[in-house]
Write a structure and sequence with these properties.
It is built from 10 helices and 7 strands. It is α/β, with parallel strands linked by helices. It has 2 domains: 91 residues; 147 residues, no CATH class. The two termini are 36 Å apart.
């Protein structure tokens, strides 16, 4: 299921998937998008996916993101769904069942879903304090059971309430759309409220309460490991450049950036073994 606005890479995204997958392909986009020249897909969903969110840096299209993904996944006739962006390229099948079978463990009280598979690129390593962006699950793609992904994105009511309640503070922090989605999911399904102002402040490392921050990160690892599996698959060249030591990746302070901010599979595997040994 491909979701989002139509971009220059969208034709290649569809063509590449059709090269190795002959099943149902759904395109979920907005009603003002030009579909001319795109390859044929199984279903096209074009509707009004809502307004932008003004005043929240990096969260402008938050509602549009969850609406387009939710609308597309609901139309899927498959039990297992890969949800990807319109600017992604996928070169081969992700063997969901075999991956999930290798990572069955979870912690009671931390699980809100059957395991979903996500890419390393865009998923920030919780221990990478340079960015200070935990609760950042990649929005590049996600794969899992249809009902689990529906639950993950069926959060509009709760999300609006969280934004309305904390909008002034959210305006003052550099929080990303993916963080808001994940924090809303935690609050909805596990009753964990990370929108409280002090927590958000610790989240971006502007407070001196390092003990509190360390506790939050320890908890986050348990949520992450209990619900998601991180793999390195079809990664963007940017990911490999960062992984193998290239630091000039667009950040103005790149000279001080310690290694890869993304969650490498070897780090995920090591933490999984430590937590569930």
């Amino acid at each position: 299921m491909i979701a989002g606005d139509i971009r220059g890479q969208t034709k290649s995204c569809i063509d590449d998937i059709k090269g190795w997958f002959d099943g149902e392909i759904i395109l979920s986009t907005w009603n003002d998008q030009n579909l001319s020249g795109l390859p044929k897909v199984s279903k096209i969903i074009q509707s009004d996916h809502g307004p932008t969110i003004d005043g929240l840096k990096n969260c402008t299209n938050l509602l549009r993101m969850i609406r387009s993904r939710l609308a597309g996944v609901k139309e899927s006739s498959s039990e297992i769904v890969l949800v990807t962006r319109t600017d992604n390229i996928h070169k081969g099948m992700i063997e969901y069942q075999s991956i999930v079978a290798r990572y069955p463990a979870f912690m009671n009280g931390y699980k809100f879903s059957e395991k979903m598979v996500i890419p390393a690129i865009g998923t920030v390593n919780p221990d990478h304090q340079y960015w200070g962006k935990p609760f950042h699950i990649s929005d590049w793609w996600i794969m899992g059971r249809k009902d689990c992904i529906v639950n993950f994105y069926d959060i509009e009511k709760e999300l609006k309430n969280n934004i309305e309640q904390h909008k002034e503070h959210l305006k003052s922090v550099n929080i990303l759309a993916e963080q808001v989605v994940f924090m809303t999911v935690l609050k909805k399904f596990l009753g964990v409220d990370l929108f409280e102002e002090k927590t958000l402040t610790n989240n971006i490392l502007t407070a001196n309460d390092k003990d509190s921050y360390s506790r939050i990160i320890s908890e986050y690892w348990k949520w992450l490991l209990s619900n998601f599996i991180v793999i390195e698959s079809n990664q963007h060249k940017l990911y490999h450049n960062i992984k193998y030591g290239w630091k000039d990746w667009g950040d103005e302070n790149h000279d001080q950036c310690p290694k890869n901010p993304y969650l490498l599979k070897e780090i995920y595997d090591k933490k999984y073994s430590e937590v569930f040994s």
